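Lab meeting tomorrow. Look over both lines:
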Amino acid sequence: MRPALLVLLLVAVAWACLGGAARPLQAAEDWAEARKAFLAKAKNPDWKVRSTAFGDLAYFDDEKAVAAVLGVLASESQPNVLLAGIRALGTFRSAAARAAVADTVRKGKDPLRLYALFAVADQPGSEGKEVLLELLQAREAPVLAQAALALGRKQVRDALPSLLALLRHKDVRVRGAAARAVRYMGGSPGGAAGAAPGAPAAGRSLATPEGLGALVDALEAGEGRERADLLATLQHLTRQDLGWDIAAWRALAQGGPVDTLPRNPRHPAYFFGLPVFGRRLVLLADNNVRTEDAHPFTERARLQEVCKVPGARPVPWFELKTLQHLLRAHVKRTVADLPSGTPFELVIVSAKARGTFGKLTPANDGTKATAATALDEARVEAGNDVFTALDAALDITSRKDSVAWDTGPEEILYAIVALPWLAEQSDPAVVAAAIGLKARMRGVPLTLVGLGEHPYEMCQALAEATGGTYLNLSK
């Protein structure tokens, strides 16, 4: 070989070696800079800045980035920042990153385990189904419930036998989650009362005698809020509304003709016509200046429709002139119809959130009268502190998630009339994010009835996030 060619070859080899060494070195330097910028933003006192921090890791799709996100989430408490971190976990695509997230789902400690589970649940399609199927054997009720919901939303048919078995789980929230999961698997829109009644083909294919029979068995054994989820699932899969009538549903499940089914439905208490099955309840009623506006139901027939109570006498409609009249009449009627002994609290929402009892208190003639009097005597105020009211409702027995899961409300009912305003937290999107995440962590469905010019999008978001119901009575 000529000397000149030999020199050129050696130079080329040297450059290749230097380049090969420089690339990992440069990558390491880039990661160090990105991590430094990420941690600096994550420590910023402004939560809006902290929520943008995760964007600094967008180009680093590996287990180190996952660990960095989890490290920040471990010490974070602001719900919007937590949601941003959860979304970040769900966007990682590399095998190493996905494995790190899945490992946290399997073996992590709460709340990081649930955050990672939510991230997997929010990934598109059936991604992450393997780890979710594993979690159907989990002992922890919150993990089991969230895994069931995720599999239902992803419509993983392999999970159906396990979901039907979970309908008889000892934990009421797991039973409710399993019922909702079956409904989601059938393509249920969910979230809003009065949604399209026709189930798609996916739903009809689940309406087998075995599947419907398992739902009816669970309804018969039901004790609390899960009965609402079971009924909603039966209605969605069959396109029939037989009410709380176990015998009729069982006959339908066994192939009986709909037209000849005997019907004798039982009736629980109702909240603006929506059934209330929770065994522990918190009711919230707005009491701001907007409640003094005239209600929009100027046509008698429409007002009478809004005042109906299924299976019972209607709310007296002829003297209702304002939103306040309508709201108070319905809330008092719900309280009056609660089964004796049902633990409940009534929170009146205005410039402050004012509880009637300060704790869940058994329903009886005396406590029902006290709640009605508190509502009638409450003075209207300008402010509407929605966030504090909902937060207090979730924390009524404990601020700790695990305790609240076992002892807190099974259902929260809110008659809302105006946007959050003149309060420390008045952004509806922030309220929806914060309360939605907290209620989701605790398995508490929120039922929201909006009257007048209320925060529509916030109510819809809260219902969808928690598996609750939103009824729009603005017109």
